[in-house]
Design brief:
The protein contains seven helices and 14 strands. By secondary structure, it is of the alpha+beta class. It has two domains: 117 residues, 2-Layer Sandwich (Beta Polymerase, domain 2), CATH 3.30.460; 75 residues, Beta Polymerase, domain 3, CATH 3.30.210. The strands form five sheets. It has a five-stranded mixed beta sheet, with helices on both faces.
């Protein structure tokens, strides 16, 4: 997550909604996450989670040769032609405590700037949408407690997935993510560490 100049929720939400509109046709699914989704009165950045739309690419004989990521193509188009979207340097915190600053435009995360606001774009897939969307909604201390405490019940969150006894549990919706961890649903604005609890009824049995 990045930190830009503070902006009121309504102004930041308008900017985020505008950007989502520009990217929507290139996505199977796209939503605003982060502090905007939690309705914080003042926000410093925009967080978006998206599933790219993939188009089959064929050769001159009509044989499939790969798939085109339409979201990446759309971002490049907005950068190069309309010049309304640009990459930005982002910090990478390494395990040894060092911090590296560089542009991040990978397959899972893109650090961008739109209308002067930092944008964190997280790329999901249908099976992991619920997990990634929930974690990118936050807040950070809620996420930390959630992924730490769930280990007591043989759950683990890793690479955008919930693992139960080492087996991946599909989380196509956010409610599936909560259920897989044994946590009752709670609305984004109410997600605080003190509100986090695990439900024994949800923890019984195999979440698969």
């Amino acid at each position: 997550m990045s930190a830009g100049e503070p902006l009121r929720w309504d102004a930041a939400h308008a900017v985020a909604t505008e950007l989502v509109g520009l990217l929507a046709d290139a996505c199977e699914r796209i939503e605003i996450a982060g502090s905007l989704r939690r309705h914080k009165s003042v926000v410093h950045d925009i967080e978006i989670v998206a599933i790219p739309r993939l188009a089959e690419v064929t050769d001159m004989w009509g044989e499939p040769v790969g798939r085109l990521n339409q979201l990446s193509e759309c971002i490049d188009h907005l950068r190069l032609t309309r010049k309304v979207l640009a990459p930005r340097p982002a910090e990478i915190h390494r395990r040894d405590g060092t911090v590296e600053t560089s542009q991040r435009m990978g397959d899972a995360y893109k650090a961008l700037v739109y209308r002067g606001m930092p944008v964190d774009l997280f790329i999901a897939d249908p099976e992991r949408w619920g997990c990634i969307f929930a974690l990118r909604t936050g807040p950070g201390d809620w996420n930390t407690r959630l992924v730490t405490d769930c280990k007591r019940w043989f759950r683990r969150v890793e690479d955008g997935r919930v693992l139960h006894l080492g087996r991946p549990v599909p989380t196509p919706e956010e409610a599936d993510f909560f259920r897989a961890l044994g946590v009752p649903w709670i609305e984004p604005p109410e997600r605080r560490v003190e509100a986090l609890r695990f439900d024994p009824a949800l923890l019984r049995g195999d979440p698969l």
